[in-house]
Amino acid sequence: MLIQHKQVGGKGMFFVEQDGNILAELVYTMPSAEKMIIEHTEVSEELKGKNVGKQLVHTA
Question: Which domains occur in the chain, in start order?
């Protein structure tokens, strides 16, 4: 499973995508270079129970 990252300015997300659909995501803001605020996480029913949310947090 490939965790991808996208960031624009002080906002970004780590996500798992398959066939153009986002199956899991972690959305964050960076108010400073040393501080990340995780605003939202979501994992699809398809990936629940597979530690994907935990992997997103560790990657962030």
Answer: 4-59 (3.40.630.30)
